[in-house]
Amino acid sequence: MNLFRRLTILVPYLWLLALFLLPFLIVFRISLSEPVLAMPPYAPQFDIGEGWAALRESLSQLSFANYVWLTEDALYRNAYFSSLRIALVSTFLTLLIGFPLAYGMARASEGLRPILLMLVILPFWTSFLIRVYAWIGILKPEGLLNQFLMSFGLIGEPLTILNTDTAVYIGIVYSYLPFMVLPIYATLEKMDYSLIEAAQDLGCTALGAFWKVTARLALPGVLAGCLLVFIPAVGEFVIPDLLGGSDTLMIGKTLWTEFFNNRDWPVASAVAIILLILLVVPIVLFQNAQARAQESGS
Amino acid sequence: MKSLGNVRRSFTPWADGSAKPYIAFENVTKRFGDFTAVDNLTMHVYEREFFSLLGPSGCGKTTLLRMLAGFEEPTSGDIFLDGQPLKGVPPHKRAVNMMFQSYALFPHLNVADNIAFGLRQEGMEKGAVAERVDQMLKLVKLEQFARRKPHQLSGGQRQRVALARSVAKRPKLLLLDEPLGALDKKLREETQFELMDLQEQLGLTFMIVTHDQEEAMTMSDRIAVMDAGTVVQTGTPGEIYEAPNTRYVADFIGNVNMFEGRITAVENGLAEMEASDGFGIRAVAQPGVDAGKHAWFAIRPEKVDVTRTKPEQDHNAVEGEVWDIAYLGGLTVFNVRLDSGAVIKATVLNSERAVEDPIGYEERVWLSFDPDCGILLER
């Protein structure tokens, strides 16, 4: 029984080892290499058949030169900052739209809720790529949005939205909205509505009760939603590539360029590793804080 | 009228015509869509009263409470609290606090912070808040649990926190929505007496919603029995139990045997009724009971005597067969099947430790009662 239990726990660990840690180590190892014109396009290569001495020799050729390079070229720094900024702003906008949506869903009648939930998930039934392409048709100068606004005389000439940061924001908010709505909905849906009445009964205005009770109790959902939007948004490639302009700098695009256009696998790997560290550190800190809050009983 | 039941204390403002009601519902109607939850209801409650709203679920009792708290507005009619109309006053501006059926404790706050919530809301200064919270914790005997979160408490402890939180602001009126519903029987009985003590100690007016008639009987100064959005009868527990005004009330409060029949004569304040179970009933006739009318005679099981021999009187006595016996410790319940097929309940107090030759199953017995033990009801 005990052995069986240990074995069951082993499965997820093996999974993580094979599908997360191993690939990570491979990428990390490539990031310490040098680009060469060969297949695969980096050196040194490890060959166990050549014996210990050769392996040692190969290992000594690994260096952090690529990481130093990343700090020296302002392009990468700007790309990281720009990605973080775009992700941060998009996350905030997604929260601004997602929270009322989730709140409305959680307060809807019980019969209506599954339908609303369905509507939130429905876009996933269409390919992500096609949906982002569809936004080109909506946002381009002669697109649906401009035609609509002009036909009502709201604007005189077409707005330039496509190929700007605004289009990227629209794309990210649209694509990631369900990831914000669902966790918030989950926390709000199980909230006891009489808590709000209790707060009002004890002297809170409706708005006060919202802040002190609803918003506070939805916090875990809000944080989960923000992480689910923020993390993929930082590394987003497709949306800035399709909707953003040439001056929209995002690290996902930079990575793509290094990997496919420059065929510089080591630098691309270093970019990916730095991105991972940038994202993992705050998440670990957040999880620790969460665990501590849990311990004191939240 | 002679006194019915024991009066808990000499406190009867409702009998005093000059007393000003503390809470007044005047022709209040509340509709939710097509459903009428409260139907043209007028009711007065006096200061320091322990008042119970008793009725089955859906009778509108909780809606009355929620209208007082401000969570619902009446569709028509007015509610006055201490002479002031409540129309349009939002919940946070009413000097009324409510203890919720679900307790509605804030899960993210510990016990002390839950109790302090309302005090901080009204801007009480820190030291005073701490002092009041300590006082409240002592009142509900939860001093050691101040730092616990609600989910770390037992059901009974949570109930106490909810109570402490609702009285922390010293409201003049406390509304309690099924406050003991989630507790087990023993704890419920203990808490009933604690609630009564607390009410006397703090000098509050309590308005409590319950569907548990025993709970209402134990605690209340007066009870309003409700049905389908209206109050059927308001009175002290004794009045409600001994002198119900309808079969509905008689049936809702405690156990009751009902005999249907026709009044044949009324003489010297006594009415003669021919029960459809085939025997004559002689009972005290209230005003309005006239010969020829259809009526029901209601009598409580503890007022029915069980004997082996035929009683001397020729009315108020009927023969039957013991159908079932339930021994409840303090008393024994006999279910006696009359020849008409009706089953009558009679309870006998077990005042002696052992009875020689007790009445057994399938024995023929006589049931009898005095004319003033039951009540004649017209509907």
Features:
heterodimer, A: about 300 residues, mainly alpha, MetI-like fold, two-stranded antiparallel sheet, 2 strands, about 75% helix, about 0% strand, B: about 375 residues, alpha+beta, Rossmann fold, OB fold (Dihydrolipoamide Acetyltransferase, E2P), five-stranded antiparallel sheet, about 20% helix, globular, disordered N terminus
Characterization of the model:
The complex is a heterodimer of chains A (298) and B (379). Chain A is mainly α. Helices cover 74% and strands 1% of the residues of chain A. Chain A has helices at residues 2-31, 52-61, 65-72, 74-107, 113-121, 128-139, 144-151, 165-189, 194-201, 206-234, 238-243, 251-261, 265-295; strands spanning 34-35, 42-43. In chain A, strand 1 (34-35) and strand 2 form a beta hairpin. The model of chain A has no long low-confidence stretch (mean pLDDT 89). With 379 residues, chain B is α+β, with helices and mostly antiparallel strands. Chain B has two domains: 13-248, 3-Layer(aba) Sandwich (Rossmann fold); 255-377, Nucleic acid-binding proteins (OB fold (Dihydrolipoamide Acetyltransferase, E2P), Beta Barrel). In chain B, 22% of the residues lie in helices and 34% in strands. The model of chain B is unreliable at 1-7 (pLDDT under 50). The chains are: A mainly alpha (298), B alpha+beta (379). Chain A binds chain B through residues 192, 194-195, 197-206, 208, 213, 216-217, 297-298, and chain B through 69-71, 90-92, 96-98, 100-102, 104, 106-108, 110, 117-118, 121-122, 148-149, 151-152, 165-166, 169.
